[in-house]
From TrEMBL:
Family from the record: Belongs to the RecA family. RAD51 subfamily.
One Pfam assignment: Rad51
UniProt keywords, alphabetically: ATP-binding, DNA damage, DNA recombination, DNA repair, DNA-binding, Nucleotide-binding, Nucleus
Domain RecA family profile, residue spans: 76-257
UniProt keyword annotation of Coiled coil present: no
Native organism: Betta splendens (Siamese fighting fish)
MF-aspect GO terms: ATP binding; ATP-dependent DNA damage sensor activity; four-way junction DNA binding
Tagged with keyword DNA-binding: yes
GO BP terms: double-strand break repair via synthesis-dependent strand annealing; resolution of mitotic recombination intermediates; t-circle formation; telomere maintenance via recombination
Annotated compartments: Nucleus
Signal peptide residues on this chain, from the entry's feature table: none
Protein name as it appears in the record: DNA repair protein XRCC3 isoform X1
Main location: nucleus
Length: 339
């Protein structure tokens, strides 16, 4: 507990404090490592109470940030670098390990590009922001972009100038990415309940990517089937959270978007956005971190390359403020840009 803030140092409503006291949680950091739905089940509090608890805890951590050594060695606070210092800074080190991160956006915004980049980043040692293991990539709609992956592999020394070239050359990146294609929800559930746990248990992978989570739920159900869809969605989420917690692995889900309707919850989308992540509140309540990416009406130039400018926003996260960074997509990968 050295260097950690005990939860009883938070200014909490007595009823909320009593609920937290009944759990095994001791530090603020432990509270922030648990998703909102899990905190609801653990404490018996309402969604609003849990939201206020997480907000209070996150504010306290920003005022009294933990020591870097604690962030590195506390397994619940371990991060997976996205391979870019600008974006890592926004995410306070990268993706949370043992949590579910969603990246939503329109087609062509760069979501798959970032997912591929994570599949390479995870293979580096922990001191370079990786987890020293492979990744499993589940495709539910499009074929796996193998040519783009090979290009990213060839450009790793340009993207990751912080890593010794000898180390980069020693890694067999493509051998450590396990690709699965699932055409329906049944095959997706079989993959998540049988093949993925085997890879995780053997230590062959430490990152799970699902691209995309909305495709199958949108294609297999009509609007009138919302009850059955939500039931299947919660079963899927339960499996996903179990894998994330049991193997302390980050889960990265790409999501499609839908038009924003009048009266939509502004906390679920970036300010000024005309679209919202698909699957509604049933899905949003299962996500620990929600990110959104969009294309802007500008082009940036760097050396002999040009890129349509993108914007990566934090929509919600228990440990992050709502913030965003501009980024470009270059042949070596996704990188933040200063504009």
């Amino acid at each position: 507990m050295s260097g950690q803030m005990h939860w009883n140092q938070l200014d909490l409503n007595p009823r909320v404090a009593a609920a937290v006291r009944r759990t095994q949680l001791k530090s603020v950091e432990e509270i922030l490592c648990i998703s909102g739905p899990d905190l609801q089940r653990l404490t018996g509090l309402s969604r609003l109470d849990v939201k206020q608890l997480l907000t209070t805890a996150a504010t306290a951590c920003r005022r009294h940030p933990p020591m870097p050594a604690l962030l590195l060695h506390h397994s619940g606070m371990l991060r997976l670098s996205v391979g870019c210092p600008v974006l890592d800074q926004m995410l306070r080190g990268g993706l949370l390990v043992g949590a579910v991160t969603e990246l939503a956006g329109k087609s062509g915004t760069g979501k798959t590009q970032l997912a591929l980049q994570l599949c390479l980043s995870v293979q580096f040692p922990i001191q370079y922001g990786g987890l020293h293991s492979g990744a499993v990539y589940i495709c539910t709609e499009d074929s796996f972009p193998i040519r783009r992956l090979q290009q990213l592999i060839q450009e790793q020394s340009n993207l990751r100038s912080d890593i010794p070239p000898d180390l980069i050359n020693s890694l067999h990146f493509s051998d450590n990415i396990y690709i699965e294609h699932t055409a329906d929800l049944d095959s997706l559930q079989v993959c998540l309940s049988q093949r993925v746990p085997l890879l995780l248990a053997r230590g062959l992978v430490r990152l799970l990517v699902i691209d995309s989570v909305a495709a199958l739920f949108r294609s297999e159900f009509q609007a009138c089937d919302w009850l059955e869809r939500n039931k299947r969605l919660l079963t899927f989420c339960s499996t996903m959270h179990r894998l994330s917690c049991e193997f302390n692995t980050p889960v990265f889900c790409i999501n499609q978007v839908t038009d924003v309707f009048s009266g939509s919850d502004e906390n679920l989308t970036p300010q000024g956005s005309s679209v919202s992540p698909a699957l509604g509140l049933a899905w949003a309540n299962q996500v620990t971190v929600r990110l959104m990416m969009q294309r802007l009406q500008r082009t940036v130039v760097r050396d002999d390359q040009s890129s349509v400018l993108r914007r990566l926003d934090v929509v919600f996260a228990p440990h992050l403020s709502r913030d965003g960074r501009d980024a470009g997509i270059w042949k070596e990968g996704v990188q933040g840009v200063c504009t």
